[in-house]
Amino acid sequence: EDQVTQSPEALRLQEGESSSLNCSYTVSGLRGLFWYRQDPGKGPEFLFTLYSAGEEKEKERLKATLTKKESFLHITAPKPEDSATYLCAVQAYGTGGGNKLTFGTGTQLKVEL
Amino acid sequence: DGGITQSPKYLFRKEGQNVTLSCEQNLNHDAMYWYRQDPGQGLRLIYYSQIVNDFQKGDIAEGYSVSREKKESFPLTVTSAQKNPTAFYLCASKEAALGEFDGYTFGSGTRLTVV
Q1: β-pair partners for A90
Q2: Positive or negative, the Cα torsion across B50, B48, B108, A61?
Q3: Could you say which of A91, A97, A104 has the minimum Cβ distance to residue B42?
Q4: Contact A24, A36 (CB under 8 A)
Q5: Across the interface, do B96 and A99 touch by the CB < 8 Å criterion?
Q6: Percent helix, strand, coil in chain B (nearest 5)?
Q7: Distance of alpha carbon A102 from alpha carbon B107, whole angstroms
């Protein structure tokens, strides 16, 4: 069974204080790993897809990296508007079609002035 | 602008009542999905559909039903058989053929509460 574990559950940072969020996964064969941002009471917003170990992607203050067992979402010099819940999900080979994703429980990030 | 529209934003259900959540997309996406989100749990797949007039059960389909009569619409009915329906429901879509590894596009969600 595919599993995704995110840590920490919650993270409080000062503005400008860089940090990383972790996503550990167990899948029979990784087809893709996804990062989403979710604001309270809203649907998740797509950030990145990573396909293979060693891959990195960047978007503004965010950078996602991937190894064979985990992914990190690095946040450089965060601002209060980066406060949100960040979700990680994996898509495995052999899921029977449908491009189904397995999600972690998320990391709730709060960036304070 | 293209996107996914979910309605209503808030829905209250009485015991023993069926309710239907609406999901409409104008992205011309082939595949559509329904997920349920509960506090402290990851999103869980209820049903998905890859083409019109076809759909498959996800991991937690019991007590739910769907239809896919039009490409742009994928309504979810929460039946009285669903014993714990209070949750945040999310609809998503993606192109099935192209961009296979692209992320889903999500709607803004419907919060269902049993009263």
Answers
A1: A33, A102
A2: negative
A3: A104
A4: no
A5: yes
A6: 0, 50, 50
A7: 18
| Cis peptide bond upstream of A44, omega within 30 | no
- Each residue's pLDDT tens digit, A17-41: 999 999 999 988 898 999 999 999 9
Residues facing A78 on adjacent strands: none
State the pLDDT at residue A98.
62
Cβ proximity of A2 and A26 under 8 Å: yes
Position of tokens 């397995």?
A: A102
B47 close to B36: Cβ distance less than 8 angstroms: no
The pair of three-digit structure tokens given for residue A72, joined into one six-digit string:
């990190």
Kindly tell me if the per-residue pLDDT of A79 is higher than 70. Answer: yes
**CA distance to partner chain B, nearest, from residue A61 (Å):** 20
Q: If 0-12 CB within 10 Å is exposed, 13-18 middle and 19+ buried, where does residue A61 land?
A: middle
Which of A37, A28, A26 has its CA nearest to residue A62?
A: A37
Do the beta carbons of residue B50 and residue B31 sit within 8 Å? yes
- Contact between B90 and A45 under an 8 Å Cβ cutoff? The reply is no
**For residues B95-109, average pLDDT:** 75
Shortest distance, CA B83 to any CA of chain A (angstroms): 22
> Do the bridges between strand B10-13 and strand B110-114 make them parallel or antiparallel, or are there none, so unpaired?
parallel
* Contact yes or no for A35/A86 (Cβ under 8 A): yes
What is the per-residue pLDDT across B75-97, written as a single tens digit (0 to 9) for each? 999 999 898 999 999 999 987 65
On the question of pLDDT at B106 being above 60, the answer is yes
